[in-house]
């Protein structure tokens, strides 16, 4: 189909995308800090919406039972039957505290193999959507599914796989396969969406010829969702006296496309000011008239067209100029075209048929978002950027969009352009066709590019607030690269610490990554920030703490050895890190909060010092000195810290062959 589908979301409570096409994201603002997308809750918001509008497909009950009994279900079904939406709803129904929703991307950089046990945390909700995967990828994933399913079962997680329709499946996995079919009554699907959009039920319960015609042929679920969204938007912009029949008729006309209609209209508008206004309305659809008027003037200035020289009172007023392009300003002062989806057709026309205009649009958009008009509120700015990004992505120009985002923020001209760059990259990541390319490009930027201006901060925000939601492993790797390269700031390091704070799995993976090979000097500071002993000894989620895992202990010893070696082998002015505070925190937790994991924490420190080679003695001395200093600053009083110091001294003696393996009663402090 050639019809372009468009969904606009103007709520700051989350994001909804009902099908193919562009998605316009409105972000919340704070006066005292750069705006951050409200993406932290995005996955659950999306899942709640999907659950709200989903009409149960055929065999939904069987899929639900299979997932509940086994922790795994493999969904099959014809395209358009609602497979992906069903998968998300099933995972939403199994939401548990502590677990995270993640979409798995087994063919991308930084994803652990599906068979790796470290892939799954207790309570995780995992989606593996391979409905459109090539045969090679499905074959590889199919081979790893038994191991993944076993880990999921052991850790009481949930896994939903969407397989390619009629793809091969191994006999030992057939038990988990459920073939779903579209709901028996498409009208119920449409009505469910209309009800969710707030359309009064007394409107859509009556028969309508346009709806009957639309549903006379079986439609994919996404097309029904798109049609419902068009009805919703037609209702919002309808004139007085128009009802459900008129809304549906407008939705039908919009669905048919308006490209020819717009092309004919442009031919009849030869003046540059008319076309500039037409473009401004299409890019700022729904914005206040003052914003549109100013933006049209900026566009003329950007492309080098002189302003109208007629005396001010002899010029056409804005109402007349809007009427010439089939637009109007409503009672609220907001400008819209009179026909539904006319704005997207206008954007497509000028983008496709005036390619020399494209570079100017990027410059113009940056100038508009920097305007200080009080009506240029955040969601208007974001909508402008999203519509511009949509044209880049629609025509396969993802590289140009990425370059534009980099250019906006690298120029270092202020917060508005940086936020526009965040929005542009967010649109690229959300695009089904180009999301993978943007994830790879962001990796290259974070790992290798010399970042100028505000671009490093833009990448931190995109990784922490967008990428981390569905793809936290990707965010972890990219934030780590940024953290080890940043100078004079700790934004990336703070974002990295925040990311791992909520996930045992991510903390485990970062510690493993830090300990792998030769530890870079810049990694020492990263380690000290993420080696908080409290989460390492926490057993609130599972009975087994992270420090109980052999791999985690190995990583901790390796990293502490590097920290102690740096501390004792370099003059004080040349040390890369100053670990005194972190050592005291570690020792305080061993004394006051670690419980029966106290000795493990001390053993890790002693083992790390014991591996410091020729600096071994100095490392032991540094540990003992840190323990004595920790006693003076103990939050719970010095007695327990003194007992911990005695126990540490005993362990150091054992490591040096100077004492018995069992600590004395004074070293144990009466604790068993």
Describe the structure.
It is a single chain. 57% of the residues lie in helices and 5% in strands. The chain is globular and about 95 Å long. The strands form 3 sheets. A 5-stranded parallel sheet has the order 4-5-6-3-7. The protein has 672 residues and is mainly alpha-helical. The chain contains 31 helices and 9 strands. The relative contact order is 0.07. Helix 20 runs antiparallel to helix 21 and helix 27 (580-592) runs antiparallel to helix 28. Among the domains are: 56-179, 3-Layer(aba) Sandwich (Rossmann fold); 259-376; 503-672, no CATH class. Mean pLDDT is 86; it is low at 1-34 and 36-42.
Give a nutshell description of this structure.
The chain is mainly alpha-helical. The protein has helices at 42-53, 60-70, 83-93, 135-154, 186-196, 201-204, 209-214, 221-236, 244-256, 259-267, 272-283, 289-302, 318-324, 342-353, 358-369, 378-394, 398-410, 415-430, 435-448, 455-470, 472-485, 491-501, 504-515, 521-530, 533-537, 550-569, 580-592, 598-610, 616-632, 638-655, 665-668; strands at 6-8, 22-24, 72-76, 101-103, 125-129, 158-162, 177-179, 327-329, 335-337.
Chain-wise SSE layout:
Elements lengths: L5 E3 L13 E3 L17 H12 L6 H11 L1 E5 L6 H11 L7 E3 L21 E5 L5 H20 L3 E5 L14 E3 L6 H11 L4 H4 L4 H6 L6 H16 L7 H13 L2 H9 L4 H12 L5 H14 L15 H7 L2 E3 L5 E3 L4 H12 L4 H12 L8 H17 L3 H13 L4 H16 L4 H14 L6 H16 L1 H14 L5 H11 L2 H12 L5 H10 L2 H5 L12 H20 L10 H13 L5 H13 L5 H17 L5 H18 L9 H4 L4
Parallel strand pairs: 1-2, 3-6, 3-7, 4-5, 5-6
Antiparallel strand pairs: 8-9
Helix pairs in contact: 1-3, 5-8, 8-9, 11-12, 11-14, 12-15, 15-16, 16-18, 17-18, 18-19, 18-20, 19-21, 20-21, 20-22, 21-22, 21-24, 23-26, 26-28, 26-29, 27-28, 27-29, 27-30, 28-29, 28-30, 29-30
